[in-house]
Write a structure and sequence with these properties.
Keywords: ATP-binding, Cell membrane, Kinase, Membrane, Nucleotide-binding, Phosphoprotein, Transferase, Two-component regulatory system. By secondary structure, this protein is of the alpha+beta class. It contains 8 helices and 9 strands. The site of adenosine-5'-diphosphate has 22 residues, from helix 4 and helix 7.
Length: about 270
């Protein structure tokens, strides 16, 4: 679908002439629509917890004589406000990544360090569901970039793997390197993703199952953040999955042959 604008020029042409200009403004329209949708989505996402908080605080005020009910409402208030805080911080993170600020200073980062940090962030959620986090594959692979951003990206993938898997399963983080690319795969035994959804899950706020995502505390922004971080590092993220058969998310990043300090010349050679 395209949108064409028509511009008619009369002057400075001779009196019997007009010039009709056809301009393709489809892209302009698309960008404008994406922006409008985004604002509508953010408003909707914020309205839900704010509405819940209003109702819950009213209920809490009415429950002064019922400590058990009051405790229940308080727990839900904490849950909703934590989700809202996460939503706001992920929105800020996303807008930072979308180029408002310069790229982070790039330095060699051992993949093992990224994974250790990412696993640490997912540990509590994994323990709560008896999910085992297993590391395997190559060691000594190094990439170039921002350690904290890359740990966020891998952490989001691990967080999703845990959120969309049943109890007592395994999430494997596998590292490989081939032809100049470092591969970090996060493999789960969870619910998987339908072919119709798989192309869209990296869009902001797209969820295959909105109710499930909300129940796990998801914001719908995690994979959009991963995609931006991969892009900022000249890399990309890939996914393969089958409903009921688990998913594999792979972060591909240009690898660095050797950490800088090991390539420094000997003092004798200088
Ligand atoms: P959310 O906060 O909803 O998890 P994400 O951007 O991280 O948002 O993911 C978008 C959607 O992709 C999720 O709502 C879910 O439907 C799907 N998804 C992401 N990771 C997985 C996974 N490991 N297994 C199954 N579905 C997943």
């Amino acid at each position: 679908e395209s949108t064409i604008a028509v511009r008619v020029h009369v002057s400075p042409l001779p009196a019997d002439r007009i010039l009709i200009e056809l301009i393709d403004i489809s892209e302009l329209h698309r960008v404008e629509r994406v922006r409008r949708d985004f604002v509508a989505n953010v408003s909707h996402e914020l309205k839900t917890p704010v509405g819940a908080l209003q109702l819950l605080t009213e209920a809490l005020a009415d429950a002064v004589d019922d400590p058990q009910a009051a405790a229940r409402f308080t727990a839900r208030i904490q849950h909703e406000s934590a989700r809202m805080a996460r939503l706001v911080s992920e929105l800020l993170e996303l807008s930072r990544l979308q180029g408002a600020e310069p790229l982070p200073r790039f330095e060699p980062v051992p993949v093992e360090r990224i994974i250790t940090e990412a696993i640490d962030r997912g540990r509590t959620a994994a323990t709560a569901k008896d999910i085992e986090l297993v590391r395997e594959g190559e060691t000594g692979v190094t990439v170039s970039g921002s350690e904290s951003q890359l740990a966020t990206a891998v952490g989001n993938l691990i967080g999703n793997a845990i959120a969309y898997s049943p109890q007592d399963t395994t999430v494997t983080i596998r590292v490989g390197e081939a032809r100049g690319w470092a591969k970090i795969s996060v493999i789960d035994e969870g619910i998987g993703i339908a072919p119709d959804d798989i192309d869209r899950i990296f869009e902001r706020f797209y969820r295959a199952d909105p109710a499930r995502s909300r129940a796990t505390g998801g914001t719908g922004l995690g994979l959009a953040i991963v995609k931006h971080i991969a892009g900022n590092h000249a890399g990309r993220v890939e996914v393969s999955s089958m409903p009921g058969n688990g998913s594999v998310f792979t972060l591909l990043l240009p690898s660095v042959a050797v950490p800088a300090q090991e390539t420094a010349p000997d003092v004798d050679e200088m």
